[in-house]
Backbone:
């Protein structure tokens, strides 16, 4: 249901590579796009495009010239997952109507725009969905790049990798479950009040 796109996954890979480089070799050390491409299975144009997006979002610094390259713009513990995802995918929206951006659903002739929700003017769930959107984004803000780059948290054995990820990011999982439960409870309370009024 809720998935990180391949593009976002690649961006996380590039940033964790830069974070590990900073930790191993020092904060000011640069890594070239070619080095990042060579250390992965990503082609150079994909790496270049992702680095451009990450630089535009001020997550990385770019140094031009013969000895140029890329490095994190700030400490890995000051960069959170929500920033990374938004750098390559745009603003997070669990559902389209849950953002603060004005929603345009019809063209000048009154026809429903492609991808627009025809229920947006009638929807009674909009408030609950906005709360859910904010809570999920909040969870993404809790996950720092330094955590994602910490290889000691993950097991090398593929059979235990899932378990390790669940244990290490258990607080986020628990937060997800409690956020969904409290949102569901809030919706039930609201529907209960509406039914009795």
Residues:
């Amino acid at each position: 249901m809720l998935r990180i796109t391949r593009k976002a996954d690649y961006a996380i890979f590039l940033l964790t590579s830069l974070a590990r480089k900073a930790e191993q070799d020092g904060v000011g050390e640069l890594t070239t796009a070619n080095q990042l491409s060579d250390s992965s299975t990503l082609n150079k144009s994909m790496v270049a495009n992702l680095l451009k997006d990450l630089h535009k979002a001020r997550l990385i610094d770019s140094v031009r010239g013969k000895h140029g390259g890329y490095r994190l713009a700030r400490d890995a513990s000051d960069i959170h997952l929500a920033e990374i995802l938004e750098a390559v995918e745009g603003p997070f929206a669990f559902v389209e109507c849950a953002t603060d951006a004005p929603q345009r659903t019809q063209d000048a002739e009154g026809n429903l725009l492609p991808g627009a929700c025809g229920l947006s003017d009638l929807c009674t769930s909009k408030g609950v969905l906005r709360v859910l959107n904010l809570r999920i984004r909040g969870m993404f803000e809790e996950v720092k790049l330094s955590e994602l780059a910490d290889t000691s948290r993950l097991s090398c054995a593929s059979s235990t990798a899932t378990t390790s990820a669940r244990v290490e990011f258990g607080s986020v999982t628990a937060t997800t479950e409690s956020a969904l439960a409290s949102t569901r409870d809030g919706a039930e309370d609201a529907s209960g009040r509406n039914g009795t009024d």
About this structure: The CA atoms of residues 98 and 134 lie 8 Å apart. The longest strand covers residues 60-63.
